[in-house]
Design a protein that fits this description.
The protein has 15 helices and 23 strands. It has helices at 3-10, 34-43, 60-71, 97-100, 110-117, 136-144, 179-189, 205-216, 248-260, 276-284, 321-328, 348-354, 384-396, 406-412, 416-422, and strands at residues 15-19, 27-29, 50-54, 75-79, 82-86, 119-123, 148-152, 155-159, 171-173, 195-199, 220-222, 228-232, 240-243, 265-268, 287-291, 296-300, 308-309, 334-338, 358-362, 365-369, 378-380, 400-404, 427-429. A 4-stranded mixed β-sheet has the order 21-22-1-23, sandwiched between helices. A 4-stranded mixed β-sheet has the order 2-14-16-15. Strand 4 and strand 5 (82-86) form a beta hairpin. The chain binds uridine-diphosphate-N-acetylglucosamine. Uridine-diphosphate-N-acetylglucosamine is lined by residues 35, 38, 104-105, 131, 133-138, 176, 178-181, 202, 206, 318-319, 341-342.
Length: 430
């Protein structure tokens, strides 16, 4: 029996067996953006009319969010990447912990529930593998819009006072440009009475996507994508047909997969402006890029070490920090990677070290001395993006690796191994 097969048969937890020394070629197809689709699904609660979403990725996080909507009385049908949502009979304003546990995005329902029904009871999402991830800014924003909020025993109980149960427009300045807080406040303010504004708003493409969907439903939002968003409240929103943007983090992961395996590859569909910070860093480390309207072709040269600091959009995304670190482990020279968004997002370092990477960590900074090649090992991804990083590292390593952490991976990458295999990888799921 080959060595890899004998190791695989001994690991009982689900894992990917990834053959190293891989060269990718052709084109990798990018699915719809997970982080957009999740918030757009929550936004469907804002109307009694039917909403149709196209390009919804087939992911476990999407399934969980779908189940949450079903519990609230929403009718939902999904065929591949198309989803029909009918929230006309929305009745439930209380979400049980068992259902929302593990899906932070479930907290997105609080804004629409308050705006449409005037009440919501949702467990606090709590921290996760990468950090504490508070929701104080969401709560502060909702309070500014007139909601009464009580947080007790880990549950947020929110209601809108008055007979009309309508939130009131407010001027809100966020302490930090939180993506989730911006989206929560946006969804609450669209049906509020009067004018609202969000300053120091998150500028991420997913916020812009939400704003576009809401405007297609009849909302009056301007400025999304910039630091100040203004909203004129309307009384009703209507249904619409809307296509989710391509997933910039999946696209970025594929570009880094090409770079780490020194492969010529195309990635599509993409909105290249959503990837500018990554594209600049890929050029800086030696890759040649051909940017088309909806696709990017990458031709990696000799990869050299460069420095990365994660920042809110348009800066380098924290969600690509782990995959980029995997790339830097085999770059020529030294690179310094600083994580500025989450306090606990360096867990992949220990796994990369087990594959022979030379990395020193001090606080949230990693100093990486590139080595010629990693060596295969059984590795475990502790969160979504670090599991993806382990897959990329394994593709480039010498030998066959076993990557555990598929419960994380399947949350955010649709058919990852099938897509990579179609471009020349050899990955088997056990
Ligand atoms: C979203 C993304 C996630 C991405 C992150 C940052 C979704 C479903 N998830 O998460 O993939 O990694 O943006 O790009 O869209 N913070 C506070 N107080 C708050 C809220 C946030 O201090 O009330 C801090 C967080 O602890 C974190 C930083 O702000 O350090 C960014 O968090 P935020 O932008 O809110 O991330 P999420 O919306 O949770």
């Amino acid at each position: 029996m080959p060595i890899a097969a004998s190791i695989s048969s001994k690991i009982s937890t689900p894992h990917l067996e990834v053959q190293g020394d891989c060269i990718l070629s052709g084109e990798l197809k990018v699915s719809g953006a997970k982080n957009s689709a999740l918030v757009l699904m929550a936004a469907s609660l804002l109307t009694e009319e039917k909403l149709q979403l196209q390009n919804v990725p087939e992911l476990t996080d999407i399934d969980v969010m779908g189940n949450i909507l079903l519990t609230m009385g929403v009718k939902l049908k999904q065929w591949k990447d198309e989803m029909h949502i009918d929230a006309s009979e929305l009745h439930h304003v209380e979400l049980p912990y068992e259902l929302v546990h593990g899906l932070r995005a479930s907290f997105f329902c609080i804004g629409p529930l308050l705006a449409r029904l005037g009440q919501a009871k949702i467990p606090l999402p709590g921290g996760c593998e990468i950090g504490a991830r508070p929701v104080l800014e969401h709560i502060r924003g909702l309070k500014a819009l007139g909601a009464f909020i009580n947080v007790e025993h880990g549950v947020v109980t929110a209601s809108v006072p008055g007979t009309q149960k309508r939130l009131k427009g407010a001027e809100i300045v966020l302490d930090c440009p939180s993506v989730g807080a911006t989206e929560t406040i946006l969804m609450a303010a669209v049906l509020a009475e009067g004018h609202s504004s969000i300053e120091n708003a998150a500028q991420e493409p997913e916020v812009q996507d939400l704003s576009k969907l809401l405007n297609s439903m009849g909302a009056k939002i301007s400025g999304a994508g910039g630091p100040k968003i203004t909203i004129e409240g309307v009384k009703h929103l209507h249904g619409c047909d809307y296509k989710v943007i391509p997933d910039r983090i999946e696209a970025g992961t594929f570009l880094i997969a090409a770079a780490i395996t020194r492969s010529n590859l195309s990635v599509a569909p993409v909105i290249p402006e959503h990837l500018n910070s990554l594209l600049q860093k890929l050029r800086d480390c030696g890759c040649t890029l051909e940017i088309n309207k909806e696709s990017i072709h990458i031709n990696p040269g000799e990869i050299k070490g460069i420095d990365i600091t994660t920042q809110p959009f348009p800066g380098f995304p924290t969600d690509l920090q782990a995959p980029f670190m995997a790339l830097m482990t085999t770059a020529k020279g030294t690179s310094v990677i600083t994580e500025k968004i989450y306090e606990n997002r360096m867990k992949h370092v220990a796994e990369l070290q087990r594959m022979g990477a030379s990395i020193r960590v001090q606080g949230n900074t990693a100093v990486i001395e590139g080595v010629p090649q990693l060596s295969a090992a059984p590795v475990h991804g502790g969160d979504l993006r670090s599991t993806a990083a382990m897959v990329l590292a394994s593709l480039s390593a010498r030998g066959n690796s076993q990557v555990e952490g598929l419960n994380h991976l399947d949350r955010g990458y649709a058919s990852l191994e099938e897509k990579l295999n179609s471009a020349g990888a050899h990955i088997i799921r056990h």
